[in-house]
Amino acid sequence: MAxxxxxxxxxxxxxxxxxxxxxxxxxxxxxxxxxxGPSGCGKSTLxxxxxxxxxxxxGKLLIDxxxxxxxxxxxxxxxxxxxxxALYPHMTVFNNMAYGLKNRKVPKDKIASKxxxxxxxxxxxxxxxxxxxxxxxxQRQRVAMGRAIVRDPKLFLFDEPLSNLDAKLRGQMRIEIKxxxxxxxxxxxxxxxxxxxxxxxxxxxxxxxxxxxxxxGTPEELYSRPATRFVAGFLGTPSINFLDVQLTATGAQLSNxxxxxxxxxxxxxxxxLGLRAEDLTCSTPAQADFTMSVxxxxxxxxxxxxxxxxxxxxxxxxxxxxxxxxLEEGMxxxxxxxxxxxxxxxxxxxxxxxxxxxxxxxxxxxIAV
Amino acid sequence: MQSHPFKHSWVPYIFVAPxxxxxxxxFLWPAGQAVQQSFYxxxxxxxxxxxxGFLNYAEVLDDPEYTSTVLFTLLFSALVTVFSIALSxxxxxxxxxxxxxxxxxKTLLMWAYAIAPPAAGLIGGLLFSxxxxxxxxxxxxxxxxxxxxxxxxxxxxxxxxxxxxxxxxINFIFFLSxxxxxPNSVLEAARIDCxxxxxxxxxxxxxxxAPTTFFLLVINTTYAFFETFGIIDLTTKGGPGGSTTTLxxxxxxxxxxxxxxxxxxxxxxxxxxxxxxxxxFQFKFIDKKVHY
Lengths: 369, 292
Prior knowledge:
The complex is a heterodimer.
Chain A: E1 4-12, E2 18-27, E3 32-36, H1 43-51, E4 58-63, E5 66-67, E6 78-81, H2 93-102, H3 108-121, H4 137-149, E7 155-159, H5 167-184, E8 187-192, H6 195-201, E9 204-209, E10 212-217, H7 219-224, H8 229-234, E11 241-248, E12 251-254, E13 259-261, E14 270-275, E15 280-282, E16 290-299, E17 303-310, E18 316-322, E19 332-337, E20 342-346
Parallel strand pairs in A: 3-8, 3-9, 6-7, 7-8
Antiparallel strand pairs in A: 1-2, 1-4, 4-5, 9-10, 11-12, 11-14, 12-13, 14-20, 15-19, 16-17, 16-19, 17-18
Chain B: H1 11-37, E1 40-42, E2 49-51, H2 55-62, H3 64-97, H4 102-110, H5 117-127, H6 134-141, H7 152-180, H8 184-193, H9 197-227, H10 229-235, H11 247-257, H12 261-286
Antiparallel strand pairs in B: 1-2
Helix pairs in contact in B: 1-12, 2-12, 3-4, 3-7, 3-9, 5-7, 5-10, 7-9, 8-9, 11-12
């Protein structure tokens, strides 16, 4: 269990490519922090810098207030679970788990009891004599977890540990990882590109793009108050709808000429409006904010999903609706915006803009980021 | 699909025929002749021969020179195998870590593979020649009383050195490709689990190279037994005093120079049996410790 601090951690490769641009982050004792982002955003590099597998170009990495930049991976008291498990193929499951302890000169009987204990937690007891080649993907994943937990490290590092598993197993393992981490109370840093994994596992989430941290916060904060257009677009399924609008004195003009009435507009620029699929509802033409042309209706069982475009344009829209709505492909659908949950982003910088309107129209939940 | 147990097409036999014919002509036929000849004794002019049973074998086994040849062959192949494997492993591990100019470095290390054993022997012979040899001069200048024509341990040093040098390249290639097939993430996991680089090498990397090492052990032993003929013939000619005569070289000396066909045939049959036993031993006892 430990606290971890990043102070302006940065990584530049020899060829001049800057993979990580100065990240600050405080991970509290026992916290589960997930770094999420598209591939190539630098999230794995960052994790490997914490592990010591990748050199830190500048900045400071502190584990329990100890400066560890220069320490070898084995001397940082961390344990890592790799994407492809990275089990030692020539060793039995028992030896895979015991290897780290043996090298730390732990007495033999203690090793045996620790491995036994971990094997019980992970239901590996009957597999201890097998070699990794004789195990299924899910079992290998458990062994990799076991190898991490037997050492009681200060920090768990997970590098997309579930991406090689099939969807069902992934869901199960996700729950097990979370339960295990809660039970052990070990601080964890987890990297994934899967936003559902990120949302469900994280106490706190860091969304990264191009080596920059875009936003840090609880999954709920990031979902309901994304700080940038990128974060809004990255989190949530189906992904958020973006509409380009022109602000006028009485509201916002959509690209098809429709007009969303908003009182107290204090600006007149082009801006991006982000609307989640569940924050739009059916309405009457008179009360609607805009109209959608429905191209496809998807039955999801518990609800309906309408896929289409903003009428008269090619701007895509996806709306989640009550399953009792009568929808047909090809119809026009008047929609009303839930004004507590709209997100405005600067069209150029992609930053969230909250100061466009007088307070009664601004998003109500004001959670500090 | 269930194939009929007796009706086979003749086409597959045609495809394997060239290999079978080569084995028949170049291995089974001469081997059979050697076995046959080992039971006969020819007169000095090769005009007549008589069946003598196991007399040739008994004479060979009685000969103290044969015993010393066996001992030298064992020593020689052990030295060549151990040194060529150890050195090439060291070189491969180092080359695997080189980043800048890696290809040049690797190519240079593989260079010697292209040299035929007799050419290697010739080069070695010249390097150690008392008349023009640079290494001969060097060793004597730094205080060794070096002469491989008179001193048997010096002669052993020369043949082992050349044989190891000749074999390094091929071992290096195998070890390098073996090292490159060790998954990077496994090595990284080991870096987290084990602080010492040397211990990591012996507990993770080396066991993962075991199939390669085992394969090289077998082929290097065979190499030291059979393919070092050219090196020995061009440097020491088995001397001084038979101290660098391997079993193969003795077969050549007794058979072709001494014209004792029966005796040398008996030796070659024994060598054949010995190598088969050795290989079986290697597979049986070492193969079990190898993780594939």
